[in-house]
Design a protein that fits this description.
Length: 346
């Protein structure tokens, strides 16, 4: 008789399985939890610094805006050395009794922001395209373009105040004689020109960083397909540089809404044609009306937060790049279905 070889199959209970069906999921969750804890520890110092330099002053400004001026109490007739609690009276006074000045400063701030940021976007993109070209002396061109951005704002305002003086260069080059630093629309034009001259290189610098990330092969392929310069710019360059441009515009919008030093130094305080919300808050605080000054600052803070939120939501929450789209609930259910089917097989 031939020998028979019996092949013994291992018992299912004794099979050496590395892990159960749910073990990969638990491992992934554990790694994600450890990664989140590590990330929390790494950003804790930054959060602490922000709490000290941002959160505390903001909360203190909100608290201060609820108090009035020390002095004669109309209810008791006594003079008080402490600031009385007035609640929301400062906000009500700003929006009613002092509403004309507030809404004038609000309109000046919005007009300045829209006009200056729009001009800076166009000029900044043109600067970036020039700096991106492989020209002889490109380093010198880049340095000369970025010089205005490196000069402090107060120095720039003094420089342009000399240019826009009654006997300055502006009136020497332009026909007529314009009093740029007095009340009127010409004062706002002077502030916008000076601000665009200083900050347009900032937009150009960020857009230049986006241009350098575009592969050269993309433009070469478009040239082969017969696309002209304008077509390549509109269909290739602008969409690919959009994340960097949006970041630059967001920074400039937030900065322009808080503008103070440029119109204050160039034109002067208490000029209704250029007075902004920041200048208004400073003027109230300078006259020892800290409660109303804090109320102006809080309103400006809320306006800036609202504009930033609307900008991010309307133009895309991912302002630093095209993030991978998040899968929908139905897509996640379909992705889990094959794994459940595999786990149920014997």
């Amino acid at each position: 008789m031939g020998s028979e070889t019996t092949v013994r199959r291992p018992h299912p209970a004794r099979t050496a399985e590395p892990s159960g069906p749910g073990e990969p999921g638990r491992t992934a969750r554990k790694r994600r939890s450890e990664s989140m804890r590590l990330g929390t520890l790494l950003i804790a110092p930054t959060v602490l610094v922000l709490a000290v330099v941002v959160a505390f002053p903001t909360l203190d400004a909100i608290r201060m805006s609820l108090f009035g001026q020390p002095g004669l109490d109309p209810d008791t007739g006594f003079v008080s050395d402490t600031e009385p609690f007035v609640g929301l009276d400062n906000y009500a006074t700003i929006l009613t009794d002092a509403g004309a000045r507030f809404w004038n400063a609000f309109a000046n701030t919005v007009f300045f922001t829209i006009t200056s940021v729009a001009l800076e976007a166009v000029i900044g993109v043109c600067m970036a395209l020039i700096m991106h070209q492989a020209l002889r002396g490109r380093a010198l061109v880049r340095a000369s373009i970025l010089i205005p951005w490196a000069i402090p704002t107060a120095i720039v305002a003094l420089l342009w105040r000399w240019i826009f003086n009654a006997d300055g260069i502006a009136n020497a080059l332009l026909p007529g004689r314009v009093l740029w630093t007095t009340e009127g629309i010409q004062a706002m034009v002077a502030v916008i020109v000076a601000d665009v001259w200083k900050t347009a290189p900032f937009v150009g610098l960020l857009v230049l960083a986006g241009l350098q990330l575009i592969p050269r092969e993309t433009h070469e392929a478009a040239k082969v397909d017969g696309a002209g310069a304008w077509r390549r710019f509109w269909s290739i360059t602008l969409p690919l540089v959009k994340p960097a441009l949006l970041v630059a515009l967001l920074f400039r919008i937030l900065d322009a809404l808080r503008v103070f030093d440029m119109p204050y130094v160039l034109i002067g305080p208490r000029k209704s044609s250029v007075e902004t919300l920041s200048m208004l808050a400073h003027d109230e605080a300078s006259n020892v009306r800290f409660g109303s000054g804090a109320a102006y600052a809080v309103l400006l803070f809320l306006f800036v937060v609202l504009v930033a939120f609307a900008f991010v939501k309307l133009l895309g929450a991912d302002v630093v790049g095209d993030a991978e789209p998040r899968p929908t609930r139905r897509a996640r259910r379909k992705a889990r279905a094959p794994r459940r089917a595999e786990g149920s097989e014997p």
